[in-house]
Structure formats: structure tokens, C-alpha cells
Amino acid sequence: MAELSCGHTQHLRHQPPWQSRAWVLAPAQRIEKIGQSFACGWCAQEPE
């Protein structure tokens, strides 16, 4: 689970065909992703 700078959290799973994130399966590749930015799906939604 990633804690985003906006305060939201996001699960980063590898579940093809919807999410292709093979890097989550390898510990060394997960460590490389720490500190990288991810778009927040909650902040991207338009207010209703």
C-alpha cells in the first residue's frame, strides 16, 4: 500500500489484465519504487 502526498492511500497490486505491475512481486523492484510519484485516483475524480 502506498501513502500518497495528498493523504490518500493506494493499493499497488499486480492483477492482470487490469493492472500490470509485475514489479510488486520482486522485493528489490519494490524498493526502487519508494519515493516515486503515483497519480491519486481519488483526487482525479471530479466532485459530484
Tell me what you see in this structure.
This is DUF3565 domain-containing protein. Pfam families: DUF3565. It comes from Pseudomonas cedrina. The protein has 48 residues and is α+β, with helices and mostly antiparallel strands. It has one domain (2-44). It has 2 helices and 2 strands; from the N terminus they run E-E-H-H. A two-stranded antiparallel sheet has the order 1-2.
Key descriptive features of the protein:
alpha+beta, DUF3565, two-stranded antiparallel ribbon, DUF3565 domain-containing protein, 2 helices
Structural class from helices and strands? alpha+beta
Strand count: 2
How much strand content do the residues show?
5-15%
The largest sheet is: 2 strands, antiparallel
Mean pLDDT across the residues is 85
Q: Please, how many helices?
A: 2
Low-confidence stretches: none
N-to-C span: 26 Å
* Spatial arrangement of strands, main beta sheet: 1-2
Order of helices and strands: EEHH
Helix content: 10-25%
Number of domains: 1
Radius of gyration computed on alpha carbons: 12 Å
Tell me, briefly, the overall form.
flat
Pfam families: DUF3565 (PF12088)
InterPro entries: DUF3565
Protein name: DUF3565 domain-containing protein
Organism: Pseudomonas cedrina
